[in-house]
Amino acid sequence: MGRKVTVATCALNQWALDFEGNLQRILKTATGVGIIITSRTPSCIRSKSWLPFWNLRSLRTSSVTWECPRKLRPATDIALCCSQTGACVPSLHRPVMHRNVRYNCRVIFLNRRVLLIRPKMALANEGNYRELRWFTPWSRSRQTEEYFLPRMIQDVTKQETVPFGDAVLATRDTCIGSEICEELWTPHSPHVHMGLDGVEIFTNASGSHHVLRKAHARVDLVTMATTKNGGIYLLANQKGCDGDRLYYDGCALIAMNGHIFAQGSQFSLNDVEVLTATLDLEDVRSYRAEISSRNLAASKVSPYPRVKVDFALSCHEDLLEPPSEPIEWKYHSPAEEISLGPACWLWDFLRRSRQAGFLLPLSGGVDSAATACLVYSMCHQVCEAVKHGRGRYLLPAVWWFSDQEVLADVRTIVDQLSYTPQDPRDLCGRVLTTCYMASENSSQETCDRARELAQQIGSHHIGLHIDPAVKAVVGIFSLVTGKRPLFAVHGGSSRENLALQNVQARLRMVVAYLFAQLSLWARGARGGLLVLGSANVDESLLGYLTKYDCSSADINPIGGISKTDLKAFVQFCMERFQLPALQGRTWA
Fold first, then answer.
1. DSSP character for 305?
2. Each residue of 16-56: pLDDT tens digit?
3. What pTM, to 2 d.p., does this model score?
4. What is the CATH number of the domain that holds 290?
5. Which of 92, 156, 314, 583 might form a disulfide with 3, Cβ 3.0–4.6 angstroms?
6. How many domains does the chain fold into?
7. Distance between CA 104 and CA 163 in Å, rounded?
8. How far is CA 519 from CA 358, 434, 529, in A?
9. What is the DSSP string of 453-465?
10. What DSSP state is assigned to residue 322?
11. How far, in Å, CA of 165 to CA of 493, rounded?
């Protein structure tokens, strides 16, 4: 007899404020949902506390608030629920002090009772992450202790202590284990021993930022985990920018026994995306029974502490529910990833900053042209999101909920409550100002190239000369020292030549910020502009840049992309967006 459960995984923007309402809608639509796992970061940047929901039947929030320190932004929550009864087992990540040690924990609770506090055992501490600065990993594998709940929580749950440590949940029909973000990526992942000990469903609510080609690694890790050991794996991932330089790309998925059953979008402007799959637990059990090496290892494994839960994910009505079919994962090419990921990041950053758009110094080179194309791609995605409107099916078993947030944000940015974006060029003209800052050493070719590209993407373009400012600055130096530096072509030394080049580059930054703050004022429009940088990662790694020129900006959308990938992206934009200004050029 099969035991079918409908599982769902959800990607959420950390700023999503209507999570409960969106979850209620998907539960009403996806009958028989048994597990929902979501990725969500509380809106700590706004210094708001998040009110956790306690019962999906009413979706009313408790009076208890869970404060999140400003610098401690643990991502994610998970909900295990049964749509037949309205019961749920939600959980969230919180900093928890246990015996005067701060842990990053998943707190799992059911119907106003905390079931388990599961601390994170592997902390991300390389690249962009510094978790060890704030937290201590739990090092006692398969051990639990008693944790005394705060009195404000005791008043709600009517509990004094709860298990704290490395344990799993044992329901009436299956066993559920949790991995937390980085633990999937470690050489000795917890899912290995949990699977050997009979855990059939693994959940991982992650905060993994976007890097080109990273989706391949995520999919490989999850499919390999379920290929070797069997089981159902639910991976959720955060979406949107983190208020700084990172972008979280969603890419949620559901896998079983080495196959993918649901794929979430890797990039979208929507704050909430839910995907579901109906899977049979008996498929997991028969798959594992056929692997003798796995069974030999399972007979020797040390058992996990089990938290018994009087709760069932499956029911008799599920016998007639058709199971989901495996799908083939669809990857984006690197050029497509560049056109989508940084563009989504730009949009999220712009709408959260409440600025009126961007200002880009457009030089006629490949770097600034690629940055301009990213803003144009952003405008394309915004128009598409507005066109598709409210919650809809995107792919089989995938739901998006926009709730008109994109349209509302556009109207706020352009300061027109009746504006509805339909043409990307028109929107680009409202949110992007490009500026070509010529000097006596600039070529007519780069000037024409910048102007043509600006016309084709629709940006508001400004052409100006910075020679008067350069002469004024050099004049101050000459007045003080009595000497006037010359360019090398006029007989100057290498030191003179370099200094004069840097004066031009740095004055462009000053002029860019001046126009970013006042160009809209001069046009009778409200707000200011964010200055976009255009220094690629090769220049940053090699130090081949001028301090405080294009390397200095409010945000730099190509700061993590190589020159080779940028050239491929420019070629992609020429074909995708029909931009002849990018055609037949030898981009330097």
1. P
2. 544 444 444 444 444 444 455 555 433 332 222 222 322 22
3. 0.82
4. 3.60.110.10
5. 314
6. 2
7. 15
8. 11, 11, 9
9. HHHHHT-EEEEEE
10. P
11. 68
